[in-house]
Amino acid sequence: MYKYIYDGPVMVFNQLVTDRWVGETLAVTKRKARSNLMYQCKQALGLSGSAAVIMPGTIREERIKYVG
After folding, report:
1. Given this model, what pLDDT does residue 65 score?
2. 4 CB-side CA count, 13 A
């Protein structure tokens, strides 16, 4: 499993909403991580589910060791 971290700007409908938003999630794939992060961002910024969120920064990937 991987931990994905986004730290960067967020745009909605091609307008800068915030120049820095930080979020992290655990996911199996980078695609699922991006989806999770976009959901978190929409919730944190009070946006509707249909808002066209763009995260132009990079999503960092960190391998984590499963302890269970």
Report:
1. 79
2. 20
**CA distances, 22 to each of 3, 13, 66, 67, 68 (Å):** 13, 20, 23, 25, 27
Q: What is the pLDDT of residues 30-64, one digit of tens each?
A: 999 999 999 999 999 999 989 999 999 999 999 88
> What does the block give as tokens for 29?
């794939």
Residue 25 scores a pLDDT above 90: yes
Q: Residue by residue, what is the 3-state secondary structure of the chain?
A: CEEEEEEEEEEECCEEEEEEEEEEEEECCHHHHHHHHHHHHHHHHCCCCCCCEECCCCEEEEECCCCC
Closest of 24, 26, 23, 36 to residue 2, by C-alpha: 26
Backbone angles phi, psi at 62, to 5 degrees: -125, 130
